[in-house]
Specification:
three-stranded antiparallel β-sheet, flat, alpha+beta, 10 strands, Phosphorylase Kinase, domain 1, 513 residues
Amino acid sequence: MGTRPSKALRRWYESHEESSRERAALRAHYELLGVLSQGGRAEVRLARHRATGTKVAVKAVRRAGSWSQRFISTEVDILKSLDHPNVIKLYEVVQTRSCVYLVMELAGGGELLKHLEKAGRLGEREACALFVQIARGLRHCHASGVVHGDLQPGNILLDTRGNVKLSDFGVGSRFAAGQKVAAGWCTADYRAPELFLRRRYDGPKADIWSLGVILFFMVTGSQPFEAHSLQSLQKKIVAGRYTLPPHLPVDLENILRQLLRVDPAERPALDDILRHPWISRCSGAQAPRPSAPGDKKLNFRILQRMSKMGYNPLHTHRSLIKNAFNSAMATYLILQCQAREQEVHRRFEPADAKTLPQSAPCATFPLPRKLRVGDPGVCSLLLPHSDQQAEPKNTRRATLPAIPVYSQEQTHSLKAARFSIPFFSLKMRTASVAPQRGASRATRLKAKPREDSLGSSEAEQPRHRQQGVLESFRRWRRAPRRCVNFFRGLGCFQPNTTAPLAPSPVAPRRRSK
């Protein structure tokens, strides 16, 4: 007869079956794609949400001892209470006996530490843009009563657009206004001086010290406190001994000295830091496009879309009220993030190039040739023959320049052929200087020329044009009616249909004694 399995073995079988069912429930909603990072107590995998097709990050934390249990519960509790564009978003929590799975927002840009190691030191404007986002996310944490406790570039993530996402709140803690927190654990290079005393300390002030070390690292490419051992590093941090490079601006040196003050009471608050002159000077930098703020109201369009996926709207509403962070709430939060991304895309992205009018190539706009008097385009601008009425003799009419209505092609042709007809241009300038009746020939020839519409006098014209002006005077005396009909035909004068004016009296000539 076979021996019966022991109680310990049966418990292992039961826990293994239960864990398999829970993993199957996780795989029912998410498709695991690969491993993003792996540490001593946690592993981050890339997954795809089956219902929406959105890529997410699944953080698997193993249950191993009371300290690990406290680490998991602290991070889950803090992430559930934070909702800010610069803080990583939690979607769902799946707990098993051996592991806890945290389904979170995916930051495709990787860690800030890798970005700094690849780029060396950042430019002043880029460092300011990232620093402002870190400070805003940290300010939201402090306003929610949360201390990060381990602020460093390895715990700061970047998305695909360069936005900052604070993560890894496992060593964080909660605090009330004016309350000091217990001594925690932090990376040695970013640890505040008061943490080495092993006493209760002001949590937000310690985070501000770490923020100053991060800013120093971004603008210089090196750590402010470097040592070969932990004891020598502790002595430098407690004494506040560091060296600023000489190439840094004065306002940047000022904000670094304020952040890295040994006395926590002398460190400025985050609101004062964000109003620093260095921030104001670099505010014109092209900062990464921000994400849309969180919306507390219930989105009924998302509920309607989830109902088509098979989710019960009442069950989803209860999950949101209780902060259950189950599959229904995860689907709602993912769809909500998609709606925010679409809103940000609509607000910040330029219009599609296809909707803008595209200019045609220059070859499609050939230059028109100069018009001649006999061209069809010029003939089409002449007045009708019926409008050329005969005038009685010894009468005058008040005339105004005509304003003809041309087509677009004729307008372009006229602009290209501006003053291209010599006789037309001469007649336009000499029409206003017609000799008066009774004046002698010498007086007419010595008449002072007037300025034309282009602002240049006839005396400044070439010699052949001046000769043409003299010849036009002779033609005007011999054939005045011919010139008037020519101007009227070109559209320069419009015949008046009103009654003719009375003939003006002519002054009698003075007889020479």
